[in-house]
Amino acid sequence: MKKKLLLCFVLATIMLVIAACGNNGTSNSNTSGSTGTNNTSSDSNNAETTEPATDGDDKQYKVAISQFVEHASLDAVRDGIITALKDGGIEEGKNLTIDYQNTQADFNNLTAVSQKIKSGKPDVAVGIATPNAISLVDEITDIPVVFAAVTDPIDSKLVPTLEASGSNVTGASDSNPDAIEPLMDFIAKEFPNVKKVGIVINKSEPNAVVMAETAKNRLATHNIGWEEAPIVNGSDVQQAAQSLVGRVDAIYITLDNTVVESVDAILDVAYEHDIPFFSADRDTVEKGAFATLGFRYFDHGYEVGEMLLEILKNGKNPGDMDVRKPEQLDFILNLKAAEEMGITVTDAMKAYVKDPTQNILE
Q: CA-based diameter of the chain, in Å?
């Protein structure tokens, strides 16, 4: 009997120990599982917060750019836009996708490109040059549209006023009326032998027509005549420039994208026949024209990029933003080009330049 009681006691003790071990195992398993989950979650969170591509802002942005043609000025605008976005924390390869479309100076491509951009639903659409901006505005009403390198946004019917328009459109003009007239005055005063100025122009570009009219009217106040050599596309530029030889004493071009793209042909004519050649943009002077009153197109693009940052990061409504225009204007002279054209650059000419270090090119 005693043996049976002892056996029962031992068995009962073993069962209690096993039960206790089982309970401890379950508890440890649960604790371990919970701790494991927390560790995994913590590691995952750490991985997310240390991801270099987000820089604390994991929002992804999409910007569509429609550009009329590739040439120095318009390319500089695009570079300025992209640089401003990068400086503001929005960068390709990290949190920015750019849908870049080039219409190749072909007006027939404008509608198709604008419709493609609209269907891609970007956060903002940018039109570089007047034709592309007009096309985007015609096609897009529910996405912010920002224009750049547009001479007269009111005449082009992009906005009704340079003040906040209340629409989905804003941007920056690349023309200041204060730039064209002083350049014409410069020609009249410093080139007394100039009796007629010729222009190579594509009249399908509204910006070119507006600027040409301003230049023509200002020259008329100095009793200087005006001669037009119209073109349809870039292949016409050389023949148009040649047609001015013997008929004009100087050549001027506006911010006419078709002409600027093929400006080498005009430079060849100006150099060969010693015809002073003036332009409306700095990039053409850097390339070989003699003089302009202007600004850097990269800076113009950078300003547009800052406007994009206000829209993308700060939620600004384009309709609440005034249209901007260049303010920091200066004469730019290319002394090497002057030699090619037989121009004697006087101290009086140099005196027009406010910042000789940057704007007298040698």
A: 141
Phi, then psi, of 63 in degrees rounded to 5:
-120, 130
Q: What is the pLDDT of residue 5?
A: 42
Look up residue 296 and give its amino acid. R
Helix axes 237-244, 263-273, angle to 10 degrees: 30
pLDDT at 250 over 90: yes
> Across the strands, what pairs with 199?
228, 252
Strands 291-294 and 250-253: what pairing? Answer: unpaired
C-alpha distances (whole Å) from 85 to each of 89, 94, 228, 305 are: 6, 12, 40, 6
The full DSSP string for 65-121 is EEES---HHHHHHHHHHHHHHHHTT--BTTTEEEEEEE-TT-GGGHHHHHHHHHHT-
d(CA 200, CA 237): 7
Amino acid at the residue 72:
A
Question: Coil, strand, or helix at residue 19?
Answer: helix
Contacts of 235 by beta carbon, 8 Å cutoff, 6+ apart: 262
Cβ atoms 184, 333 nearer than 8 A: no
Q: How many residues does the chain have?
A: 362
Type of residue found at 259: V
Task: Categorize the per-residue pLDDT at 308 as very low, low, confident or very high, splitting at 50, 70 and 90.
Answer: very high
Would you say 276 and 341 are in contact if contact means Cβ atoms under 8 Å apart? yes
Q: What pLDDT is stored for residue 57 in this prediction? A: 59
Q: What is the phi-psi region of residue 26: left when phi exceeds 0, alpha when psi lies from -120 to 50, beta otherwise?
A: alpha
Q: State residue 13's pLDDT score.
A: 46
Whole-number Å distance between alpha carbons of 176 and 333: 19
Whole-model pTM?
0.70
Q: Is the pLDDT of residue 10 over 70?
A: no
Is the CB of residue 275 less than 8 Å from the CB of residue 248? Answer: yes
Quick check: 16 pLDDT over 50?
Answer: no
Phi, psi of 4 (to 5 degrees): -65, -40
d(C-alpha 256, C-alpha 249), whole Å: 21
Q: What single-letter DSSP state applies at residue 324?
A: B
3-state secondary structure of 291: strand
